[in-house]
Amino acid sequence: MEDGKQILRAVFGDSSDSEDETCFSCELYSLRRTREASSWVRIQEINGLWLCRNFLSPERQRSLLSAIESEGWFTEASHNQAMRFGDLPIWAIELSGFIRKAVLEFIGDCNMEERPLTPSILWREPLFNQLIVNVYQPGEGICGHIDLLRFDDGIAIVSLESACVMHFTQVDGGGDCVDENVQKLKEDRPIQKVPVLLSPGTLVLMSGEARYNWKHEINRKQGFQVWDGVELEQEKRTSVTLRKLCQVD
Ligand SMILES: O=C(O)CCC(=O)C(=O)O
Ligand SMILES: [Fe+2]
User: Fold this and answer.
1) Which segments constitute the Fe2OG dioxygenase domain (predicted)?
2) Do 69 and 61 form a contact (C-beta atoms < 8 A)?
């Protein structure tokens, strides 16, 4: 485990264990972070599915939302999705760095065999080069899908604003990819359905089986957003998805 800490120190410099650690020079991320507040959860039923709850503090969530707003992508009500390939906005690059750093810190601190990302994903450069921001009004969600195979393994989603339940459904053999945002996978036989609560500021990491053999879906129609027997209150929700395009040689 010391190795992980040493790597972390080498890459990001020394960091204290105090609550007042300041990370990233960028003004978006110059807010102080509370390291203790975030907690990693491995979803037992699904290999390769990890959550980091409170990955972003409320202040950081606000900073991220205002950086997204400043892009001017969602000035019209009809606009609910923005995609970027290649050079990502500075705030998305910073967010990617923050994800890498959080994983490294966790690896350095824990004794677990399983890790949120394999070293080959964690150390690839860039970690991510494709971005989607989705904005959902109450009642709107996303159909069950596996992300397109032109994206590499290791996908991150940061969930903002409204809490929601994302359902994962196991798929026979993984299936082919279809349009990630609109169509359902055909002819697949659900084996198991696992609900996962995404509170605001949660990071989702999907790799391996979670990325290739499970569909993910957010159904925000009445009756589907139930957690602990209580229907969640819905507000506008924003999510940031980060992925890496597969290399074409
Ligand atoms: O909004 C979300 O949390 C999920 C987004 C997603 O799955 C995607 O863009 O592929
Ligand atoms: Fe997806």
Assistant:
1) 127-246
2) no
Please compute, for residue 66, the number of CA atoms within 13 A of its CA located in the half-sphere on the CB side.
8
ipTM higher than the 0.90 cut = yes
Cross-strand partners of 145: 216
Residues with CB under 6 A from ligand 1: 132, 134, 142, 147, 157, 159, 180, 216, 218, 239, 241
Which parts of the chain sit beneath pLDDT 70? 1-36, 173-191
Ligand 1 centroid to residue 172 C-alpha, Å: 21
Contact by Cβ (8 Å): 147, 194? no
Atom number, ligand 1, closest to the C-alpha of residue 147? 10
| Nearest CA, atom 8, ligand 1 | 241
| Spatial contact of 194 and 168, defined as CB atoms under 8 Å apart | yes
As residues whose CB is below 5 A from the ion ligand 2, the structure lists 147
Tens of pLDDT, residues 135-187: 999 999 999 999 999 999 999 999 999 999 999 999 975 444 444 444 455 45
pLDDT, residue 36, reads 47
Q: What is the dihedral of CA 217, 221, 226, 232, to 10 degrees?
A: 110
Q: Who contacts 35 (Cβ-Cβ below 8 Å, separation ≥6)?
A: 17, 19, 21, 105
Atom of ligand 1 nearest to the CA of 241: 9
pTM of the model: 0.82
pLDDT at residue 55, rounded to an integer: 98
